[in-house]
Amino acid sequence: MASLTVSDITKVYGGETVALDDVSFEIPDGEFVVLLGPSGAGKSTLLRLLNGLERPTEGEIRIGDDRVSGTRSDVAMVFQMHYLVESMSAYRNALTGALNRTDTVDSVFTRYDEDDKEMALRSLETVGLLEEANQRADSMSGGQQQRVGIARALTQDPQLLLADEPVASLDPKAAQDVMHYMKRAAAERNLTSIVSLHQVNIAREFGERFIGLRDGNVVFDGGKDDLTMED
Ligand code: ADP
Ligand code: ADP
Fold first, then answer.
1. DSSP symbols for 154-173
2. Phi first, then psi: what are they for 22, rounded to 5°?
3. Where does the pLDDT of residue 166 fall: very low under 50, low under 70, confident under 90, or very high at 90 and above?
4. What is the mean pLDDT of residues 52-73?
5. Which H or E run contains 186?
6. Residues in domain ABC transporter (predicted)?
7. 51 in ligand 2 pocket by Cβ < 6 Å?
8. What three-state secondary structure class fits 21?
9. In angstroms, what is the span from residue 75 Cα to ligand 2's centroid?
10. From atom 19 of ligand 1, which residue's Cα is the shortest distance away?
11. Which is higher by pLDDT, 162 or 73?
């Protein structure tokens, strides 16, 4: 269903910075992939291309049989800076994911329906925050806030879940916690997932397949057993 095919992708910024240089890989439906690489390797660029936020200079990205040509309701993204509305509850934040499911231009005026509400609650349950649903986002710990960010992505009901350095600003315990729930969410909903990380220890603990980027090139694509020489 939601397999992902990246074919000969090159991204050049400003006519000179080659952020990605002829990158290709395939991810089968439901696979959980960790994207590794040092700062500047091209991880964020790749995720923004997959998310349709930017267009490749060359090459093609397909989700299933569809060519990606812009943002899509079936692709959800979790960010390093979770971008929650701090004064809203975990539940209200999770609910906003439903706005990305519709193509309504005036989404500000969209009224959430029962399905949206049910999905928001189910998403909070998946990330273990049902009991905290009514807490304000700014009263929660960094790890909990990021789990709300995951819940919001799940409320979008995506097929592809992308996460750009979701644990980079968390302490090790919170980082593990967030990765645990991310993986659980992906497994529970059979989401094809790509999570970028720069900490190899966390990557090893949660990853199955690893794609390593360096200077815009894929320098590694394999399982845990082959991972030793990576950064
Ligand atoms: P990260 O390593 O986490 O991607 P960066 O500090 O490299 O963080 O980049 C932060 C943001 O600034 C990203 O959205 C990135 O695309 C953008 N950015 C990075 N380098 C440049 C640049 N040379 N010109 C314009 N924007 C850039
Ligand atoms: P990573 O996420 O692995 O840190 P990025 O994708 O942010 O890497 O950056 C890859 C390269 O592309 C870097 O050289 C960065 O400075 C450059 N870059 C990223 N975004 C932009 C942008 N919007 N404009 C110009 N250069 C950018």
1. HHT--SEEEEESTTTTS-HH
2. 60, 55
3. very high
4. 93
5. helix 172-188
6. 4-231
7. no
8. strand
9. 21
10. 40
11. 162
What is the whole-number distance in angstroms between the Cα of residue 190 and the centre of ligand 1?
31
Helix (H, G, I), strand (E, B) or coil at 11: strand
Instruction: Collect all residues with Cβ–Cβ distance below 8 Å to 67 and sequence separation of at least 6.
Output: 60, 61
Query: In a mutational test of the pocket of ligand 1, which residue from 44, 83, 165, 199 has the highest number of ligand atoms less than 8 Å from its CB?
Result: 44
φ, ψ at 137 (rounded to 5°): -55, -40
Starting at the edge strand found earlier in the chain, the sheet holding 192-197 runs 75-78, 160-164, 192-197, 32-36, 209-214, 217-223
- Tell me, in angstroms, the distance from the centre of ligand 2 to residue 198's CA: 15
Residue nearest to atom 10 of ligand 1 (CA): 44
> What's the DSSP call for residue 136?
B
Q: What ipTM was assigned to the predicted interfaces of this complex?
A: 0.74
CA distance 31 to 74: 16
CA distance 186 to 209: 14
Percent of the residues in the chain that have a pLDDT greater than 70, as a whole number: 94
Tell me the two tokens of residue 211.
């794609």
3-state SS, 50-88, equals HCCCCCCCEEEEEECCEECCCCCCCEEEECCCCCCCCCC
By the 8 A CB rule, do 185 and 10 touch? no
The length of the chain in residues reads 231
Distance 10 CA to ligand 2 centre (A): 13
pTM over cut 0.80: yes
